[in-house]
Design a protein that fits this description.
This protein has two helices and ten strands. The termini are far apart. With about 120 residues, it is of the alpha+beta class. It has two domains: about 45 residues; about 60 residues, Roll (CPE0013-like fold). The longest helix has 12 residues. The strands form three sheets. Strands 8-5-6-10-9 form a five-stranded mixed β-sheet. The protein binds iron/sulfur cluster. Iron/sulfur cluster (SF4) binds next to α1.
């Protein structure tokens, strides 16, 4: 048996979670105030994922950068590669919320989408 301590990131309460595992399998989650904490803890110890938020350089627009996020969770282990692709990307204005700025970022199968509008300058 092994235990892991985690802080739930599901809401600002930040409940302290204790996960009991046996041979890589989750046996029990304690400390969660709501079911979201149980789901988060089980995923975090087996397959941690994150939404990445950042900005991408945009040319010809009324802003220099457009805020963005991954369309869905990506493996936590890929965050560095995803950030590298986002840093290297340059897109052309205009951009609308929800537009795909980078397809299949870092080979994750997930797109990076705009989270604000940038009009042409
Ligand atoms: S367990 Fe529920 S209440 Fe506690 S931090 Fe997570 S989401 Fe919030």
């Amino acid at each position: 048996m092994e235990t892991r301590e985690l802080t739930c990131i599901g809401c600002p309460m930040g409940c302290m979670l204790t996960v009991t595992m046996d041979k890589g399998e989750v046996i029990e989650v304690k400390g969660n105030t709501c079911p979201k904490g149980d789901i988060y803890a089980r995923k975090e110890v087996v397959n941690p994922t994150r939404i990445v938020t950042s900005t991408v350089k945009i040319t010809g627009g009324d802003k220099e950068r457009v805020s963005c996020k991954t369309e869905s969770d990506i493996p936590k282990a890929k965050i560095f590669e995803v950030m590298k692709d986002i840093d290297a990307a340059v897109v052309a204005a205009p951009a609308q919320i929800g537009d795909v700025l980078i397809e299949n970022v870092a080979g994750t199968g997930v797109n990076v989408i705009a989270t604000r509008n940038v009009a042409k300058a």
